[in-house]
Design a protein that fits this description.
Belongs to the disease resistance NB-LRR family. By secondary structure, the chain is of the alpha/beta class. It has seven domains: 10-161; 191-343, Rossmann fold (3-Layer(aba) Sandwich), CATH 3.40.50; 349-426, Helicase, Ruva Protein, domain 3; 445-516, Arc Repressor Mutant, subunit A; 529-701, Leucine-rich repeat, LRR (right-handed beta-alpha superhelix), CATH 3.80.10.10; 705-781, no CATH class; 795-926. Helices cover 34% and strands 13% of the residues. It has 28 helices and 29 strands. α1 runs antiparallel to α3 (32-49), α9 (189-199) packs across α10 (224-232) and α22 crosses α23 (479-492).
C-alpha cells in the first residue's frame, strides 16, 4: 500500500482571498469584464475553503479525495501566479506613471479599457489584458469543475456540519499507565533516577507550593511515555504516593473531561456531575491533604488559562504531590511549570540495538547471532536513537526469517514500508497533525533540504518570506519577525534540532522528521539528488508537477544534469545546496546553457540562487522573472549586475555577499521598492552606489553604504527600518553637514552596529570642521551595541560618545583618528565590554577624562569592561588617574578587566593606575 502525500491548503486559501481583496487590483484600473470575473472567484473559493477541513481529513483513506485536493492545489498555485502577475503590473505601472506614454486609439482598445483611464494604456497593456483574460477563463472553468466534483465526494462544509475531528486512524493511540515489561527499559536508567530525584521521594521539598510539576520534553518516538510508565509503576513511587492517576490527554485540552477522568481513577467511582465547579470540588475533597501523583501524558495545550483552571484542585494536596507532564512542545512545559523541563534525548546505538533485537527475535542483542549482527546494527543506526523506530522496525523484521530479507529492509526507505505495519509514520504524523495550517506549509518546504543538512535560521526565514508563506500579524508586522516566531514554534515542537556543532543560528532535522517532510510535501517539492532515478523522463514528469526544486551543487554542473528541467514552466524555486556556507567559488562551475537558456524559461520563479558558482555575469533576460523575490549570487565572480535587475519590482532579497569583483550596482536599483535585504558585505571593489536608495523604505539589511559624488548621507533618511549592522564608508565626501542631520540615525532603533569610515589619512585638504559637525549629527539610537570610527580627522570626538544613555553599547573601536587631542569620556557606559583605541596620534596625556568628568561617582567606573587595548599611540606620554583609594566616594575602576594590551606607544613613560583585581592577560610591547 502506497502512502498518499497529504495536501494542506487552508493557509494558502487565506492568502488567496486576501489577494483578491487587495487594493492592488483596484489600482490597476481593470477592465470591467476582467474585474467582474475575478470577483466571482472570491465566492467560489469561499465555498471550496468551507470543505477543506473535511477533505484534508478524508484524503489519507480516500484516494479520490486526495486526487481532488491535488487538482485544487494545482489550481491554487496557478491562481496565485495570475494574481501576482496582476499585482506586479500594477506596481510597474505606478513606478512608470511619471513617464508619459502614448495611448492607442484602436477601437479594440476602446472597447476593452474604460475611457477614464485609457490614456495610461499602451499596446503592451492591451496585449497584457488579452493574455490575462484567457488565463482567467481557464481558471474559472477549472474552479467550477472542482466545485461540482466536491458534491460527488460528499465533502462536508464547516459552515453547515461544524468542525470535523482532527483524529484520524493513523494518529497516536491513547497511552496507559502499564509499561511494556517484555521490551526492557534500555538506556533510560539515568533519566529515571533524575526524575525520581526531582520527586523527592520519602521527603518533602522546601518549596511552599503544594505540588510540583515536572515536564518531560522530547520529540515524538523518543520514549517520553515509556519513561513516565516506568516511573509510575516503580515500587518506591507506589509506596510514596497515596493517590495516583494516569491521564492520556492527546486530544483537545478539555478541563471538565480531564477532571472527570482524574476523579474517576482516584475514587474508582463514576462522576455524577457534569458541571466543572462541582467536579473540582469533589476532586479537591478526595485529594485534600493527601500526597498524589498525576501523569498527564501527551499534552498539547498552550493556553495558560486552561491549565490554571485544571490545576486549582491540586492545591489541596499534601506537600510533595507531583504532576508529571510529557509533551513535545517546550511552550507547553513552560506554562505548566516554573522549573526547567527535563529534555529526553535520543538513545545510543547500543540501547537501540537491544530494543531492535528484542522486538525482532526476543534476543538481548546481536552478539550471539553473527549472521544478523552487521545488518541488525546497521538497521539500528537508521533509527537515529528513537526507541519507537526500533520497536516498529523490530516488529517488521520479526516476519523476516533470513539475513537477505533483513538486508532488503536496510536498503529500503522507511516511507516505502507498508503502512499497516509501520508505527513510525503515524507517530510522527501526530505532531504534524497538531500543527496550525501555516506551519505545515513551512515544515513541508524544508523537504528541499537533504538529510543531515545544517540550515541557517535567518536564511530559511528569508526563503519562507520569498515564497509568500508569511503574513504580517497584529503583534508582528514585519514578515521576518513572523518567520522567526514560526521557526521557534517548530523548534519547540521538536521538528527542528540545534546543530551538533553548537552554532547559534544553525539547525537540522532528525532523519525521520526529514522523511516526514518529504512525505507531506509530496510532489510539490522535488530534490534532484544523485540517488534519484536516473531516467530523465521520470524526473521531468516529477518536475512538471513540482513547484519547488533543490539540488546538491557539484563541481561541474553541466546542461546534461538539468535535462529534466526542459519544458518545465511552473517552478517557483531553483535552489542549489548548500546555500549558506560553501567552499571557495573557484571550485564550482555552472554551464552557460543553464544560466542563459534554462533559467529565463522559468518565468514563475520566486527563489533563484546561484551562490557559490564560478560565474562571471547574469543574462539580461533575468529581468523577465517578474515574480522573483529572492536572488542570491553571493560568492560569485560577477563584476556587475544587468540593468534589467532593477525591473524586478517584487524583489525582497538581493544577496551579493563576498562578490569580491563587484564594482557597481544597477543605476535604477532604487526602483526595487519592495527590497528588504541588500547584502553587499565583502564587496571590496564596490566603490560607489547609485542614487535612489531612499525609495527602498522597506530595506532592513544594508551592511554598508558607500558615499560618493552622487549618493549622499541624506539617502538614509527614508530607510527607517534598517536593522543589524551598517557601515557608512566615504564620510569625507560629505560637503554639507546637514545631510548627516537628515540621515536621522537616532530614529533607527533596530540598528545595533554602526561603523563610520572617512577617507585615507593622507589627504590633508579635508575640512575638519565639517567632519566634526558630521559626526556630531550622526548620533545613533541609544540601542546601539557596537561602534567603530575610522580615519576621522576632527580634533574632538562627538559629545554623545560616552553618554550613559547608550546603556547597551558593548564594543567601541576608535581607529586612526590621528588629529584628536583627547579621548572621549567612556567610563560610565554600563555595558561596555571591549574598548580598542588605535592610531590616535594627537593624544599626549590621558587623565580622568577617559573615566568620566567629575568622577569618582557612586557607581563603578568601566563597570563591565573586560578587554582594553591601546595600539600605535606614538605621542602618548603619560596616563594618570590621580585617584586615591582613601576617597570616600571611590568604589572601583576596571573591576572586571581581564585583558589589557598596550603596544606601539614608545613615548609612554608614566602610568599610574589603581589595582586591577580581575586581570588575567597583560601585554606591553614597544
Amino acid at each position: 500500500m502506497v502512502v498518499i502525500a497529504e495536501i494542506f491548503l487552508s493557509a494558502f486559501f487565506t492568502v488567496l482571498l486576501e489577494k483578491l481583496a487587495s487594493a492592488d487590483l483596484f489600482d490597476l484600473s481593470l477592465p470591467e469584464g476582467i474585474y467582474s470575473r475575478l470577483h466571482t472567484w472570491t465566492s467560489k473559493l469561499q465555498l471550496l475553503e468551507a470543505v477543506l477541513s473535511s477533505a484534508e481529513e478524508k484524503q489519507i483513506t480516500e484516494k479520490p479525495v486526495n486526487m481532488w485536493l491535488q487538482q485544487l492545489q494545482d489550481l491554487a498555485y496557478d491562481l496565485d501566479d495570475l494574481l501576482d502577475e496582476l499585482a506586479t503590473e500594477a506596481l510597474r505601472r505606478n513606478l512608470m506613471m511619471a513617464q508619459p506614454t502614448q495611448a492607442s486609439n484602436s477601437s479594440m482598445l476602446k472597447k476593452l479599457i474604460p475611457a477614464s483611464c485609457s490614456t495610461n494604456f499602451t499596446p503592451r497593456a492591451v496585449k497584457f489584458y488579452f493574455n490575462i483574460s484567457s488565463k482567467i477563463d481557464k481558471i474559472t472553468e477549472r474552479l467550477q469543475g472542482l466545485l461540482e466534483k466536491k458534491n460527488e465526494l460528499n465533502l462536508i462544509s464547516e459552515l453547515v456540519g461544524g468542525t470535523s475531528s482532527r483524529r484520524t486512524r493513523d494518529e497516536r493511540p491513547p497511552s496507559t499507565s502499564l509499561a511494556d515489561e517484555y521490551s526492557g527499559f534500555y538506556g533510560r536508567g539515568k533519566d529515571k533516577q533524575a526524575i525520581l530525584a526531582q520527586m523527592c521521594l520519602g521527603g518533602e521539598s522546601g518549596s511552599d507550593r503544594r505540588f510540583r510539576v515536572i515536564p518531560i520534553v522530547g520529540m515524538g518516538g523518543v520514549g517520553k511515555t515509556t519513561l513516565a510508565q516506568h516511573i509510575y509503576n516503580d515500587e518506591k513511587v507506589q509506596d510514596c504516593f497515596e493517590l495516583r492517576a494516569w491521564i492520556c490527554v492527546s486530544d483537545e485540552f478539555d478541563e471538565l473531561a480531564i477532571t472527570e477522568r482524574i476523579y474517576k481513577q482516584i475514587s474508582s467511582e463514576s462522576c455524577e456531575f457534569k458541571d466543572l465547579e462541582k467536579v473540582q470540588v469533589k476532586l479537591r475533597e478526595i485529594i485534600s491533604k493527601k500526597k498524589f501523583l498525576l501523569i498527564l501524558d501527551d499534552v498539547w495545550n498552550e493556553k495558560y488559562g486552561k491549565w490554571d483552571v485544571l490545576s486549582r484542585p491540586f492545591q489541596a494536596g499534601a506537600p510533595g504531590s507531583t504532576v508529571i507532564v510529557t509533551t513535545r512542545n517546550v511552550s507547553v512545559a513552560s506554562i505548566m511549570s516554573s522549573v526547567p523541563d527535563y529534555h529526553l534525548d535520543q538513545l545510543g546505538d547500543e540501547e537501540i540495538c537491544s530494543i531492535l533485537a528484542h522486538h525482532a527475535r526476543g534476543w538481548q542483542n546481536f552478539d550471539a547471532h553473527p549472521d544478523f549482527k552487521e545488518t541488525g546494527e546497521a538497521i539500528a543506526k537508521k533509527c537515529k536513537g528513537l526507541p519507537l523506530a526500533a520497536k516498529s522496525l523490530g516488529g517488521l523484521l520479526r516476519a523476516k526469517e533470513n539475513q537477505n530479507e533483513w538486508k532488503d529492509v536496510l536498503d529500503s526507505k522507511i516511507w516505502d514500508l507498508p503502512t499497516e505495519n509501520n508505527d513510525i509514520l503515524p507517530a510522527l504524523r501526530l505532531s504534524y497533525h497538531h500543527l496550525p495550517s501555516h506551519l505545515k506549509r513551512l515544515f513541508a518546504y524544508c523537504s528541499l533540504f537533504p538529510k543531515d543538512y545544517e540550515f541557517d535560521k535567518h536564511e530559511l526565514v528569508l526563503l519562507w518570506t520569498a515564497e509568500g508563506f508569511l503574513r504580517p500579524s497584529e503583534t508582528h508586522r514585519e514578515m521576518e519577525d513572523v518567520g522567526f516566531r514560526c521557526f521557534d514554534e517548530l523548534l519547540s515542537r521538536s521538528f527542528f534540532q540545534p546543530s551538533k556543532t553548537g552554532a547559534e543560528s544553525r539547525f537540522l532535522m532528525h532523519d525521520l522528521m526529514n522523511d516526514l517532510a518529504r512525505h507531506v510535501a509530496g510532489r510539490v517539492c522535488f530534490s534532484l539528488d544523485d540517488k534519484a532515478e536516473s531516467n530523465v523522463q521520470h524526473r521531468r514528469d516529477s518536475l512538471l508537477k513540482a513547484r519547488h526544486s533543490s539540488f546538491i551543487r557539484h563541481k561541474y554542473d553541466g546542461s546534461q544534469r538539468f535535462e529534466a528541467f526542459s519544458g518545465v514552466r511552473k517552478l517557483r524555486t531553483f535552489l542549489p545546496l548548500p546555500v549558506f556556507k560553501t567552499p571557495t567559488w573557484q571550485d564550482f562551475y555552472l554551464k552557460n546553457q543553464v544560466i542563459y537558456d534554462l533559467l529565463p524559461q522559468l518565468h514563475l520563479l520566486r527563489v533563484l540562487s546561484l551562490s557559490g558558482y564560478n560565474i562571471l555575469q547574469l543574462p539580461n533576460a533575468i529581468g523577465n522573472l517578474k515574480h522573483l523575490r529572492y536572488l542570491n549570487v553571493s560568492r560569485t565572480q560577477i563584476e556587475q549586475l544587468p540593468e534589467s535587475v532593477s525591473e524586478l519590482y517584487n524583489l525582497q532579497t538581493l544577496l551579493l555577499r563576498d562578490c569580491r569583483r563587484l564594482t557597481k550596482l544597477p543605476a535604477n536599483t532604487g526602483n526595487l521598492i519592495n527590497l528588504r535585504h541588500l547584502d553587499i558585505a565583502g564587496t571590496w571593489e564596490l566603490q560607489e552606489m547609485p542614487l535612489g536608495l531612499c525609495k527602498m523604505a522597506s530595506l532592513q539589511t544594508l551592511p554598508k553604504m558607500v558615499l560618493g559624488k552622487g549618493l549622499g548621507l541624506n539617502e538614509l533618511q527614508g530607510l527607517s527600518n534598517l536593522r543589524g549592522a551598517l557601515s557608512i564608508i566615504g564620510l569625507h565626501n560629505v560637503m554639507d553637514a546637514q545631510d548627516a542631520r537628515e540621515a536621522n540615525l537616532t530614529c533607527k532603533q533596530d540598528l545595533k552596529e554602526l561603523k563610520m569610515v572617512w577617507g585615507s589619512n593622507d589627504d590633508d585638504s579635508r575640512n575638519k570642521m565639517i567632519e566634526k559637525e558630521v559626526i556630531e549629527l550622526l548620533k545613533p539610537s541609544t540601542n546601539l551595541r557596537k561602534l567603530e570610527v575610522q580615519h576621522y580627522r576632527g580634533m574632538v570626538f562627538p559629545s554623545w560618545l560616552g553618554d550613559p544613555s547608550f546603556s547597551q553599547l558593548a564594543h567601541i573601536s576608535l581607529i586612526d583618528c590621528k588629529d584628536c587631542t583627547s579621548l572621549p569620556s567612556l567610563g560610565h557606559l554600563p555595558s561596555l565590554k571591549k574598548l580598542q583605541i588605535s592610531g590616535i596620534q594627537g593624544v599626549k596625556t590621558v587623565g580622568n577624562e577617559l573615566c568620566g568628568i567629575g568622577w569618582p561617582q557612586v557607581r563603578d567606573v568601566f563597570p563591565s569592561l573586560e578587554t582594553l587595548e591601546f595600539v600605535d599611540m606614538v605621542s602618548w606620554e603619560e596616563w594618570s588617574t590621580n585617584l586615591s583609594e582613601d576617597d570616600g566616594n571611590f568604589r572601583q575602576v576596571f573591576p572586571r578587566l581581564r585583558k589589557f594590551i598596550i603596544a606601539g606607544c614608545p613615548n609612554l613613560i608614566n602610568i599610574s593606575l589603581p589595582r586591577l583585581p580581575s586581570i588575567r592577560v597583560l601585554e606591553i610591547n614597544n
